[in-house]
Recover the amino acids of this structure.
């Protein structure tokens, strides 16, 4: 018992580990809540697109000497809005358009990055650097998380209706355009808030896995939000500790744990799990 | 909240609707309806019925003309939560994690505060609506775990729970069994007596005289509109449906041995009636929905598949 206690307290003697833990929980929570909507709306690829599209934003912000987060936010939002614009004015499907826009923007970011050679590590943009998080980063992420979470939790019913039945949302006079763009802004903000922790490539896992796991486990949206949050925060905490002892990359460890939980849910979910189905069909 | 602050009305003012692909689905269409009415909207496939609904809801913008709902422009009226609309086919993800009662509760959003926390009266309205469409026992099912007709009934319940003044139903009877159809018609009549305004697209010509006091005939433009008694004539039906209509006449000499020269005519759009004379099924009217028809009585003269509605 005392040994276990030591296992938990030892990493927390280091200030950088404390900050990493707090950051992981914050990011895990906001991504978890958002992931429920992304999974239900079929916007998983949108998360991928926006996260890649922040790269040119960051690099250009570096050149212009404005805060990198602002550049990242503008880059991400631009990608989302441009996708909507092209979709409305062509016959292509959204996924094809997104694929073109975000890879184009990502490529642009890479080209400029190599030309400019900024002192931010490309690795840190791509994979995050949660152990290097500073107090100021925590504040920034904390404020964004609070705003996004507040918005989503208070308006979750309208957002749910919007995802479920857009025509009816419009029929009862909800401002669907506004909701659409509010979701995109919140998505871009969430990704920006998560960059320091898990980076451009890994944030997409945080934005899909918890919602996908919860979706397998329940038929009620309120439960889905809850399960998703518990899974994400649990994985974040576990990931921080496990990575400390294994000397592994923290962001990657968190995502591995989420993936592991997903596999468990896939196999054992109460109604849809494949093993569960096998057992039921054998017993009957 | 007072139940009828509005005196519902619907005015379609010379509208022309052209889709993005250049196809003009409706041109120069005008008609108006006032409170306490059930109006049938009839026309062949592709005559623009659904398009008319979509333009009344502001989902497609007319290139010419305007729509007013209770004297207000469409968007204003929608914000007042006075219009409910049940589309021909729901474009939703049936795997969505919502229960039947959650879907019907969405109909109450317009009556709740911005957090959408249901009060007692909202829960009562949901229960009441589910009971009216006979879906009470399914209220805790996930929305995808229902049959096609049951799904339709849930969305109808949602629009009932909304307590809209203007109710637009795009083919509410397709895929619904006769018993449910009768229950829905009864419900609509009840809502008419409460002063609401309903516009119902249907191919179910047989029941129109029973429950619709007004009729609008559409074929890309309004062919005729007005009281069912005046508009719903064989001539108008001929005009609306052209050669598409199934037509079936039994002459007096085939019917009986006396000198009565009157004939029996059966006119139908898509749902073929079962026509029986004595115990013989008449050739040209093979039953598509025979399961919904009553077993012929020995003395039955004529039974149409939907004639039980009478
Ligand atoms: N989104 C669209 N884009 C282009 N044309 C359309 C679109 N929707 C419908 N149309 C065309 O507009 C015309 C009217 O269609 P609409 O759906 O209003 O017919 P309807 O009267 O509801 O038919 P049904 O009885 O089959 O429901 C049709 O010719 C159809 O092909
Ligand atoms: Mg239609």
């Amino acid at each position: 018992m005392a040994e276990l206690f030591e296992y938990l307290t030892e990493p927390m003697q280091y200030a950088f580990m404390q900050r990493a833990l707090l950051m992981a929980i914050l990011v895990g929570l906001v991504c978890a809540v958002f992931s429920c909507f992304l999974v239900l709306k079929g916007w998983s690829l949108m998360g991928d697109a926006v996260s890649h599209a922040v790269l040119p934003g960051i690099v250009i912000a570096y050149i212009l000497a404005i805060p990198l987060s602002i550049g990242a936010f503008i880059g991400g939002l631009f990608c989302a809005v441009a996708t909507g614009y092209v979709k409305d004015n062509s016959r292509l499907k959204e996924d094809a358009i997104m694929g073109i826009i975000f890879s184009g923007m990502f490529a642009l970011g890479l080209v400029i990055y190599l030309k400019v050679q900024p002192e931010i590590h490309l690795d840190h943009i791509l994979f995050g650097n949660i152990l290097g998080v500073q107090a100021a980063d925590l504040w920034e992420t904390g404020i964004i998380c609070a705003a996004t979470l507040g918005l989503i939790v208070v308006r979750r019913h309208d957002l749910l209706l919007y995802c479920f039945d857009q025509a009816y949302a419009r029929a009862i006079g909800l401002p669907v355009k506004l909701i659409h763009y509010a979701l995109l802004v919140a998505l871009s903000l969430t990704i920006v808030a998560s960059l320091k922790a898990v980076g451009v490539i890994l944030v997409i896992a945080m934005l899909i896995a918890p919602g996908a796991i919860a979706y397998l486990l329940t038929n009620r949206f309120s439960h889905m939000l809850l399960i998703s949050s518990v899974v994400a925060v649990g994985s974040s905490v576990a990931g921080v500790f496990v990575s400390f002892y294994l000397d592994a990359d923290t962001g990657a460890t968190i995502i591995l744990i989420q993936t592991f939980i997903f596999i468990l849910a896939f196999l054992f979910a109460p109604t849809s799990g494949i093993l569960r189905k096998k057992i039921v069909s054998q017993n009957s | 909240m007072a139940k009828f602050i509005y005196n519902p009305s619907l005015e379609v003012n010379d509208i022309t609707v052209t889709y993005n692909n250049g196809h003009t689905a409706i041109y120069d269409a005008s008609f108006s309806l006032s409170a306490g009415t059930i109006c049938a909207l009839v026309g062949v496939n592709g005559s623009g019925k659904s398009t008319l609904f979509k333009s009344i809801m502001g989902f497609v913008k007319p290139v010419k003309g305007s729509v007013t709902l209770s004297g207000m422009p469409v968007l204003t009226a929608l914000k007042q939560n006075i219009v409910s609309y049940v589309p021909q086919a729901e474009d939703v993800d049936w795997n969505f994690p919502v229960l039947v009662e959650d879907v019907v509760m969405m109909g109450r959003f317009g009556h709740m505060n911005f957090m959408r926390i249901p009060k007692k009266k909202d829960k009562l309205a949901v229960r009441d609506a589910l009971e009216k469409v006979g879906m009470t026992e399914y209220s805790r099912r996930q929305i995808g775990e229902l049959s096609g007709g049951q799904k339709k009934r849930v969305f109808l319940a949602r629009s009932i729970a909304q307590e809209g003044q203007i109710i637009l139903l795009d083919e509410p009877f397709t895929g619904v069994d006769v018993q449910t159809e009768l229950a829905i018609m009864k419900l609509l009549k009840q809502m008419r007596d409460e002063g609401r305004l309903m516009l119902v697209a249907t191919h179910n010509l047989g029941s129109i005289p029973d429950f619709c006091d007004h009729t609008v005939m559409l074929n890309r433009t309004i062919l005729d509109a007005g009281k069912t008694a005046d508009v719903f004539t064989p001539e108008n039906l001929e005009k609306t449906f052209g050669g598409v209509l199934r037509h079936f006449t039994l002459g007096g000499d085939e019917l009986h041995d006396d000198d009565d020269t009157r004939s029996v005519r059966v006119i139908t759009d898509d749902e073929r009636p079962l026509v029986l004379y004595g115990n013989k099924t008449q050739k040209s009217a093979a039953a598509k929905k025979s399961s919904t028809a009553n077993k012929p009585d020995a003395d039955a003269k004529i039974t149409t598949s939907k004639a039980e509605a009478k």
